[in-house]
Each structure stands twice: as structure tokens, then as C-alpha cells.
């Protein structure tokens, strides 16, 4: 293919280097100019292109109701162009200026992507018309001829690049090649195909494909292990311009076009570009409870606004926390056709030095010393799993892969994580790429409480092996319930297999410090536990501490309770409650002690997710041994009520009302409401200056549903005093 370049159309000519003849081809957006007449030499004076076969029109059958989009499961995309999935045939029709004669006429199709198309890189694809289509390989055959038209069935390769291709039809003449003009209407998006057995993302269960590829709403599980909360999230992968925004992310990450057929590469670069650290990516994270000049992470109801804002501004969108990164990542994966799900790990370890233990240092009173304690336990942490084969690893590691776009630690110099095979984490085979040791630590670390003696010796007071990764969940397939997938990640706590997986992980280089046995001798004959009463935000509640003395001795326990307001990442903002008392423990008996907590003690300092963290430490005076325990607790947050009025029919106006009653003992100021629903209405926002104590705000708006079927309305309320207030409603929209 020759290339004519037109200087005024060139934005920037990349510098050539001595190593490669062509600059890198890493933008789907950029194009080269393709000549309409490519002469073989001098053209004789009598030559008239009209004497030869020429193309009058090309029909792409790209309407939602036409066969291509129906058969390729792309009829939900709000996009006028043809969208097909790779490795599966699609139809087009070419109208010529006269009937096509196969004996003398010769034409072929050309698919091009990027600015420097090359055949050996898969960025220039010439397709000759043949008699048969081979499954999963590029090819075309004529299925129907009528007058001046022919109908073609075109097969794309099951490993081809995923992106937006330009289509040309070329006709051979004795003096040169005649080509159709550049016509954006014939552009063709090619996506991953979980329905095609040869595709690396093939998923064999139709119900799972409907959930993990085609469902445009999902559920985020949050709260904590003792109080699981859930909220809906609108992925909106089919909404207008979202597909282009997702392709732009790969351009932004400068992923070579020839690598864009490989889901492993795409996941790895996307996990870096979805956070703004080190590459000015999509979302800026903020965990400090001040969200000036941006949207609080809890206010977002879905991914669409975030992706569209980034696509237009090219600047990081403020702000996100783990579920926002995971929600946007899920949209990106499902939009491109990679099966994906959002996963929550309760009590997730963030282990700074990768030694499989979280070190909590206690001071003399048995309180955690925040100055030297660097590790933290997140109440929950959200990441994603993407489904694909792993030809780069030994057999058995394909399937679900952990990918995480929340910036926690760097991997190969950038903030990114994955893809790490879930199977490798379960069995401790953490030597297999990418980032398996980090994920292994998130679900398997031990918590070690230690105290420094006066002589400088470190004494281990307690080791808690069960606290981390207690529960790992995702949304059920086809329903809104919770599916427990903990055993995909780990064997039964205390089983022989678990022991073996740990030894394997240690053998493959996960650092594990073993405390000297002499150092650690816990108090075996007294058990301590505590329970926190569940209440609504703004109420008083109590913490009940129970001791069980299993020995025949009298003990007294110097007990200390510390109540802290924490970020959901387990990082403390401040201690709002200190309470010490002496507990008398009778032989062979249990005793319980209540500590009351008033709303006035915590309301002024409350953070985003109304999260508390309690430490209870007790020193048995007679033996000097320490019992220690920690628990997180989340207050109940009131919800929004959503109602609809009017007939729910496509194309007919209906109205929706959102209501909320202020439960706090203070006026809420600068309250923002958001409402969205994929296929129903774009995100709407409304501001209320003040909502007085016990008063109810009502917001009514009208909309016209665009798509039939079961749809979801999702709302959020946000202000400085109250965040994470959500509501949702399922709406069945009828066909007109």
C-alpha cells in the first residue's frame, strides 16, 4: 500500500528512530490517507475509470433490528455504526454500477486501523472473496447476487484487534487500483466475542454471558463483615459515546494497536489508566473526606458521567474510591466484550511490606500506637475479575483473573494490579504473573499484635489468623442477591489444603515471618469477645464486652475500649471514645460489661461511610497476658424513596419522585441529589440549599423511557454531613 500524506492534515509527524522503519501505531483515532486511485505506472490518455466496475453504495445492515447487531449481541449499543464481535460472520451488501462478473472483475475489501497500517501487524487486512469461510479466520464469500448488487458474508479473525476499523472496497483495473472514498458511515467496530469458542474470552454459559457482558447495572457490596450493605451501580456500557470513550482509554495508555486483540494486555494497561496516578488517567482518588472542586466518591451513581467527562476534558475526574475505580473498570471491560464482575473482599489487608502479616503495635496501656503502625485493614475493598484464557501461563490458570485499578502499590513502576489468576491465589502459586503475591496478602494475611518491652524486646501479644479476607462476594447471576465466592480464593480456614497453599506461597517468595514460639504464649483459659449494637445514624448505642473464664482461678482484667472514627480503609481519623474499667472474672463463668456510646460523642467527626472501629484490650493482672480484639461497625444510613407515576411505556412521558427525610439532629446544607437509569434517563442533578431537622425533601421530574424491559432507577444524596445515601427502583418498561 502506498501512502500519500498531506502536510496540512498532519497533526504531528512522530520522529523516526533508527530502530524501526515506521513510528509506533498506538492510536485508534488517527488515520492515514488512502489513495482513491493507485496507479501502476503511467496512465494512458484514453483511460476512463467509469469503464470499470465501480462501487455505487455499501449497505452495512447496522440498524438495531437488522441481523448483524441482533446476531452479534450488539443491538443495545447506542451507536449508529456497525458493531460486530470477532470470529463470527456478518453481512454487508455492495451495489456496483453494473452486474458483477466474477470471470473478469476483481475486487477486494480492505480493513484498516490507525495511522500506519501494516499487514503483518494486523492493522491492514485485505480480504479476497472466496468460496468458503473458515471459522475464526478473515475471509469473505458471496451469499446472494441480484442485478448490480452482491451480498457478502464476512468472517473476522477470532484473535483480531479490538477497535474501530475503516472499510474500503478496492477494484483492480489494468492501470491501477480504484478505491472507494473514505466514508465514516462504513466504519466497523470489532469487539471481543464471549460467544465464540476460538476467542480468548469465550464463556460457555448463556446466563453468565447475559450477566457479565450484557447487564448494564450491577451491585456494589460495601459496609463491613458484620453489616453488609449494598447499592446499585449503573455501568451504562451501551450508552452513547461510551464505546468511543473506552477505545480512547487505550489510546491514552498508548497501547500498541497490534496488542489490542489480547485481553491480558488490555486489562493490564487499563488497570493503570483508570486511576490518575502516574499517567493522568480517568479518576483521581481521594480518601481524606475533603472533596473540594470535585464530586464526593459516594455521590456517583454510575460510570457514564465519569467516562464522558474524561473523554471530553482529557483530565482526571475528581474523586473516586475503590468501588468507583471498580465500577468504571467493569464498564470498560463489559463494553469491549470481556466478561467482568465487581468483587468485594471484606476485611481486606493492605500490607505495606508484603510479609503476609499486618503489624499492629500496642503501647504500654494496650492501645494501638498509630505513629508506628503502618499497615491497615480496609473494612472492604472492591476489585474486578475478568474472564479469559491465560496462554502465557501453564494450563489451569485461565478463567477469572483479578484486576484492580485502585492505586494501592506500584507494579513494574506504575499503579496497577493484575491480571492475577484466582486459581493461582487459591493454590498459593503466586509466581505466576501479574501481582499475585499482593492479592494473596489482601485475602490471607495474619494480624499480629505486639508490644515493645522496656528493654526493647518485642513481645507478640496475639496473632489473629481469621480476621482477613473473611468473606469475598459478588452479585448473583440473573438476580440482585449476593454470591459468596470466598472458596474460589481460599481453602477452608485451618484445613490441610490451606496449610499447603500457604507453604507454596512462601516457597514462591511471599515473605512470612514466623514468631519464635517461646515469645508467644497466649492466655488460653480466658476468652474475650465483644458485640456492637446496630443502630441508625444519630442514635446512641452500646458495646457489650464478654469474658469467659474457663479456669478455676479468680482473675481481674484491666480492660480498655477505644472507639475510633475511621475511613473505610481502616485508617483512623480520631479516637472519640476511651473507656477503662476493671473486670472481675469468677472461675468457670462468663460475665458481660456494657459501654454506652452517645450520638453527641461521634456525630461531629463522622466521616463518609459512618464507620467505626473498636479495639478492646484486656490485661489479665495475675498473669500479665493480654487479650486483644478489633471490630469494625457501620451505622445504618437512611435511604431515599423512589416512586414513579404514569404508564411505563417506551416513548411515553412518565414522572419519578425522589423523597428523603433528614434523620440527623442538625440542618443539612448544600445537598445534592443525583438520579440516573440506563435506557431511561441521563444523570439528572438537583441542589437543595437546606434540609431542616425531620423535614422531607421531594424532587419530581419527568422523562421518556428509550428502551423496553426491566430497568433500574438509581439515586444518591450527598452533603458534607451525610454521604452514602442511596435509593433504587426497578421499573418494567413496556413496548409501545
Write up what this structure looks like:
- With 736 residues, the chain is mainly beta.
- It folds into 4 domains: 37-191, Immunoglobulin-like (Sandwich); 214-508, Transglutaminase-like (Coagulation Factor XIII, Chain A, domain 2, Alpha-Beta Complex), CATH 3.90.260.10; 526-634, Immunoglobulins (Immunoglobulin-like), CATH 2.60.40.10; 641-733, Immunoglobulins (Immunoglobulin-like).
- The protein is 13% helix and 39% strand.
- It is built from 11 helices and 40 strands.
- Strands 1, 2, 3, 4, 5, 6, 7, 8, 9, 10 and 11 form an 11-stranded mixed beta sheet that branches. Strands 22-19-18-16-25-26 form a 6-stranded antiparallel beta sheet, with helices on both faces.
- Strand 20 (410-411) and strand 21 form a beta hairpin.
- Helix 3 (242-252) packs across helix 5.
- The radius of gyration is 31 Å and the shape is elongated.
- Residues 1-14 have low confidence and may be disordered.
Amino acid at each position: 500500500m502506498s501512502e500519500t500524506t498531506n502536510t496540512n492534515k498532519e497533526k504531528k509527524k512522530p520522529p523516526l528512530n533508527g530502530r524501526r522503519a515506521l513510528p509506533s501505531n498506538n492510536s485508534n483515532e488517527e488515520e492515514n490517507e488512502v489513495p482513491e486511485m493507485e496507479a501502476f505506472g503511467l496512465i494512458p490518455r484514453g483511460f476512463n475509470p467509469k469503464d470499470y466496475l465501480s462501487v455505487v453504495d455499501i449497505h452495512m445492515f447496522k440498524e438495531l433490528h437488522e441481523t448483524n447487531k441482533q446476531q452479534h449481541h450488539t443491538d443495545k449499543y447506542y451507536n449508529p455504526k456497525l458493531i460486530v464481535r470477532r470470529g463470527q460472520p456478518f453481512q454487508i451488501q455492495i451495489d456496483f454500477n453494473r452486474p458483477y462478473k466474477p470471470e473478469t472483475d476483481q475486487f477486494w475489501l480492505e480493513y484498516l486501523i490507525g495511522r500506519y497500517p501494516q499487514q503483518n501487524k494486523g492493522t491492514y487486512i485485505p480480504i479476497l472473496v472466496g468460496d468458503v469461510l473458515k471459522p475464526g479466520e478473515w475471509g469473505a464469500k458471496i451469499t446472494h447476487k441480484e442485478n448490480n448488487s452482491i451480498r457478502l458474508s464476512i468472517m473476522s479473525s477470532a484473535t483480531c484487534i479490538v477497535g474501530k476499523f475503516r472499510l474500503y472496497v478496492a477494484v483492480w483495473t489494468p492501470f491501477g487500483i480504484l478505491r472507494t472514498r473514505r466514508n465514516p458511515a462504513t466504519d466497523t467496530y470489532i469487539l471481543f466475542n464471549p460467544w465464540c469458542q476460538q476467542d480468548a474470552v469465550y464463556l460457555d454459559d448463556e446466563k453468565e454471558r447475559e450477566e457479565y457482558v450484557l447487564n448494564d447495572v450491577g451491585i456494589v457490596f460495601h459496609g463491613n463483615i458484620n453489616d453488609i450493605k449494598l447499592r446499585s451501580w449503573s455501568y451504562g456500557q451501551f450508552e452513547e459515546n461510551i464505546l468511543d470513550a473506552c477505545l480512547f482509554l487505550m489510546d491514552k495508555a498508548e497501547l500498541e494497536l497490534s496488542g489490542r486483540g489480547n485481553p491480558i494486555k488490555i486489562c493490564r494497561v487499563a488497570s493503570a489508566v483508570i486511576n490518575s496516578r502516574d499517567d493522568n488517567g480517568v479518576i483521581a482518588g481521594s480518601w481524606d473526606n475533603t472533596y473540594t472542586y470535585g464530586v464526593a466518591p459516594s455521590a456517583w451513581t454510575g460510570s457514564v458521567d465519569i467516562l464522558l467527562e474524561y473523554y471530553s476534558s482529557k483530565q482526571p475526574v475528581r474523586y473516586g474510591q475503590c468501588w468507583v475505580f471498580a465500577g468504571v473498570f467493569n464498564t470498560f471491560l463489559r463494553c469491549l466484550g470481556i466478561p467482568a464482575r465487581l468483587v468485594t473482599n471484606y476485611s481486606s489487608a493492605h500490607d505495606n511490606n508484603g510479609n503476609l502479616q499486618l503489624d499492629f503495635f500496642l503501647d504500654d496501656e494496650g492501645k494501638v500506637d498509630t505513629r508506628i503502625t503502618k499497615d491497615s485493614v480496609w473494612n472492604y475493598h472492591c476489585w474486578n475479575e475478568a474472564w479469559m484464557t491465560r496462554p502465557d501461563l501453564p494450563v489451569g490458570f485461565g478463567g477469572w483473573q483479578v484486576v484492580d485499578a485502585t492505586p494501592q502499590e506500584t507494579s513494574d513502576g506504575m499503579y496497577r494490579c493484575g491480571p492475577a489468576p484466582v486459581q493461582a491465589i487459591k493454590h498459593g502459586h503466586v509466581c505466576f504473573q501479574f501481582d499475585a503475591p499482593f492479592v494473596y496478602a489482601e485475602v490471607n494475611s495474619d494480624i499480629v499484635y505486639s508490644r515493645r518491652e522496656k528493654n526493647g524486646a518485642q513481645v507478640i501479644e496475639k496473632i489473629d489468623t481469621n480476621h482477613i479476607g473473611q468473606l469475598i462476594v459478588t452479585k448473583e447471576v440473573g438476580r440482585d442477591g449476593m454470591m459468596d465466592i470466598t472458596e474460589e480464593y481460599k481453602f477452608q480456614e485451618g484445613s490441610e489444603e490451606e496449610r499447603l497453599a500457604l507453604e507454596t506461597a512462601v516457597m514462591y517468595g511471599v515473605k512470612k515471618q514466623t514468631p519464635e514460639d517461646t515469645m508467644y504464649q497466649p492466655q488460653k483459659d480466658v476468652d474475650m469477645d465483644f458485640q456492637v449494637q446496630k443502630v441508625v445514624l444519630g442514635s446512641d448505642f452500646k458495646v457489650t464486652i464478654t469474658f469467659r473464664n474457663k479456669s478455676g482461678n479468680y482473675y481481674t482484667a484491666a480492660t480498655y475500649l477505644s472507639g475510633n472514627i475511621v475511613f473505610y480503609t481502616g485508617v483512623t481519623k480520631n479516637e472519640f471514645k476511651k473507656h477503662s474499667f476493671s473486670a472481675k472474672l469468677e472461675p468457670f463463668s462468663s460475665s458481660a460489661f456494657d459501654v454506652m456510646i452517645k450520638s453527641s460523642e461521634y456525630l461531629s467527626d463522622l466521616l463518609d461511610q459512618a464507620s467505626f472501629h473498636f479495639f478492646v484490650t484486656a490485661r489479665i493482672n495475675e498473669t500479665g497476658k493480654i487479650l486483644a480484639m478489633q471490630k469494625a461497625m457501620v451505622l445504618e444510613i437512611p435511604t431515599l424513596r423512589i416512586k414513579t407515576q404514569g404508564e411505563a411505556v417506551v416513548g411515553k412521558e412518565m414522572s419519578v419522585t425522589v423523597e428523603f427525610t433528614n434523620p440527623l439532629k442538625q440542618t443539612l446544607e448544600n445537598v445534592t441529589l443525583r438520579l440516573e437509569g440506563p435506557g431511561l434517563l441521563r444523570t439528572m442533578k438537583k441542589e437543595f440549599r437546606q434540609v431542616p431537622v425531620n423535614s422531607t425533601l421531594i424532587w419530581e421530574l419527568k422523562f421518556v423511557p428509550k428502551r423496553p424491559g426491566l430497568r433500574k432507577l438509581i439515586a444518591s444524596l450527598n452533603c458534607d454531613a451525610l454521604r452514602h445515601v442511596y435509593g433504587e427502583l426497578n421499573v418494567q418498561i413496556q413496548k409501545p
